[in-house]
Amino acid sequence: MINWKCTHTWKTARINTLWCLVGCSIGDFGTILYFQNIQHDWTTFQIMTLAIINGLITSIILETIILLKQMDIKTAIKTAFGMSFISMLGMEISMNITDVLLTGGATITWWATPIMLFMGFITPLPYNYWRLKKYNKSCH
User: Fold this and answer.
1) 58-113: per-residue pLDDT in tens?
2) 50: left (phi over 0), alpha (psi -120 to 50) or beta
3) What is the pTM of this model?
4) Is 133 exposed, middle or buried (0-12, 13-18, 19+ CB in 10 A)?
5) Which of 15, 49, 118, 121 is deepest in the core (most CB within 10 A)?
């Protein structure tokens, strides 16, 4: 049984999730903003798919950089991929579904962005807590 009332683990899970959110948001929002500001014939689905991929890439890069303080590059990359990929994927999908529901998709607005970030943060948080408790593993 997992103790879901451990404040220390929730704090660690929140910090880990926040780092993941920063990394994912850089690639995701950057991609969407790029397509908002150019003429293109891409569909919303294509842009959102590319935004998810870029969000995953930037998150892995950021997490690898953070992990380099603790380990060598090969181990850091492996850890960034292995320990947080499910979390990042859930985060990316929830942010982009929220974008589609609120704006029609592939649109960054001042009012939708905080909601997208909140959904991206809250979606993987229980998983990150569970993983910390079950395996005593985190990505940071």
Assistant:
1) 999 998 998 899 999 999 898 888 767 888 999 999 999 999 999 999 999 999 99
2) alpha
3) 0.90
4) middle
5) 121
